[in-house]
């Protein structure tokens, strides 16, 4: 769909922030059981700069996952806007009774008396770099209209004046998918959606939840200065330049589109037919209307996802040659382990011998000193490929993160459709 050489060149040029993003994904996977899809959705949202919505019941870790990601990205969650109106993070739980002033700041009483009302807006939503709204669809129509403007235009309407907002990333969470008109309009603007559920009644996921959840809840905080253990050292050092690096990458992609048109969808590609088939299936099953805007945004996400996964695969260890026997390889590829895990084969075996459930956690937690994720885990790097192309694995993001409703059977049908297209030609 895109020039494969140009796409690979952009990925190589901006692999540093994408590598940091991969390190953060691994750190989060070591602490959250059964949340791999949610972690990948969060990573993808930040890489693309598109809004993310978590859907799931209370207690599935939606809010804490977002906070931990922000902390690893170098955002100070506890910072007060005392010296500046700008803050890194704004979080609020919406209810039907939430007033707009709770989000945007109350009016200063003396300024009201003088006839020139001014908001006390230090640290409020319009001045935050990252905005997270829990139970986002509980807000009033006035709040929902403001949220729409935030996401669509990155502006805030203040008594007829349009002002640019500081927001770069928008995250939301909800228990239920909305069905009414205004709520569906806001829901549609959350390009990436991910559903979280409570642990299923299966032994391995149950053990993984307890093992990782215990450390996440009662062990070392993921970074220093958490709201629970303010004075304790964190497990990892945050990547403070990550968000700036990703912003530069997105700007480079847009420059490639505008200046030379080198990064422009090609007229002929077998991806079009596959993409169209998946869109038609989603529409025919009533799982998404797949608007024109959504399709274009999807192409943007597919492009960045391909660059991210290419960089991620190039720094991760999965080498059969390092294992001592076929039996150990069977352990490596079993359901209990991630075959693309960031740990080396030898560390895997040591983790098994040590009786730990997760080799990833064993590698991370063997030292209690705060450390860089890339130092805690022994990564291996390979040369970047000269060409990369959007493949079936990228298109399978559609049933995972981009439908209005969930249908596991449709995901299987879509996967079979893509395989058939490979076998018989699109």
Q: Would you count the extended β strands for me?
A: 7
Q: Strand share of the residues? A: 5-15%
| Shape annotation | globular
Largest sheet strand order: 2-3-6-1-7
As a percent range, the share of helical residues equals 40-55%
Q: Report the mean per-residue pLDDT as an integer.
A: 81
For the largest beta-sheet, the strand count, sense and barrel status come to: 5 strands, parallel
User: Structural class from helices and strands?
Assistant: alpha/beta
Plain-language structure description:
There is one protein chain. By secondary structure, the chain is α/β, with parallel strands linked by helices. Helix content is 48%, strand content 8%. The chain contains 19 helices and 7 strands. The strands form 2 sheets. It has a 5-stranded parallel sheet, covered by helices on one side. α2 crosses α10 and α11 runs antiparallel to α19. The longest helix has 22 residues. The radius of gyration is 23 Å and the shape is globular. The chain starts with a helix and ends with a helix. 37% of the residues are buried. About 12% of the residues have low confidence.
Feature tags:
single chain, 426 residues, alpha/beta, five-stranded parallel sheet, two-stranded antiparallel sheet, 19 helices, 48% helix
């Amino acid at each position: 769909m895109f020039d494969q050489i140009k796409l690979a060149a952009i990925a190589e040029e901006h692999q540093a922030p994408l590598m940091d993003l991969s390190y953060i994904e691994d750190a989060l996977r070591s602490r959250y059981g059964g949340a791999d899809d949610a972690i990948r959705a969060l990573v993808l949202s930040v890489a693309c700069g598109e809004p993310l919505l978590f859907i799931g019941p209370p207690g599935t870790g939606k809010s804490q996952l977002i906070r931990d990601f922000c902390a690893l990205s170098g955002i100070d969650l506890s910072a007060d806007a005392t010296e500046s109106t700008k803050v890194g993070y704004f979080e609020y739980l919406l209810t039907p009774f939430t007033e707009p002033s709770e989000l945007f700041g109350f009016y200063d009483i003396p300024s009201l008396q003088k006839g020139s009302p001014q908001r006390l807006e230090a640290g409020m939503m319009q001045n935050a770099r990252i905005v997270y709204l829990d139970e986002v669809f509980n807000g009033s129509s006035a709040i929902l209209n403001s949220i729409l403007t935030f996401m669509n235009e990155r502006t805030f309407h203040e008594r007829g004046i349009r002002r640019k907002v500081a927001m770069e990333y928008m995250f939301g969470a909800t228990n239920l998918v909305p069905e009414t008109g205004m709520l569906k309009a806001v829901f549609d603007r959350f390009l990436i959606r991910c559903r979280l559920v409570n642990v299923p009644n299966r032994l391995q996921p149950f053990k993984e939840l307890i093992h990782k959840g215990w450390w996440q809840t009662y062990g070392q905080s993921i970074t220093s200065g958490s709201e629970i253990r303010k004075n304790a050292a964190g497990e990892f050092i945050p990547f403070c330049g990550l968000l700036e690096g990703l912003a530069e990458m997105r700007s480079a992609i847009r420059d490639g589109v505008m200046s030379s048109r080198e990064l422009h969808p090609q007229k002929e590609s077998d991806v079009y037919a596959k993409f169209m088939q998946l869109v038609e299936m989603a529409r025919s099953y009533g799982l998404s209307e797949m608007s024109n805007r959504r399709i274009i945004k999807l192409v943007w996400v597919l492009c960045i996802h391909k660059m991210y996964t290419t960089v991620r695969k190039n720094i991760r260890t999965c080498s059969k040659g390092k294992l001592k026997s076929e039996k150990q390889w069977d352990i490596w590829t079993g359901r209990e382990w991630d075959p693309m895990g960031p740990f080396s084969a030898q560390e895997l075996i040591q983790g098994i011998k040590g009786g730990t459930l997760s080799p990833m956690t064993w590698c991370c937690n063997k030292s209690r000193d705060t450390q860089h994720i890339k130092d805690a885990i022994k990564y291996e790097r390979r040369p970047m490929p000269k060409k990369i192309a959007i493949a079936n694995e990228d298109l399978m993001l559609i049933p995972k993160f981009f439908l209005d409703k969930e249908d596991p059977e449709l995901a299987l049908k879509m996967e079979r459709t893509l395989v058939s297209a490979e076998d018989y030609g699109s």
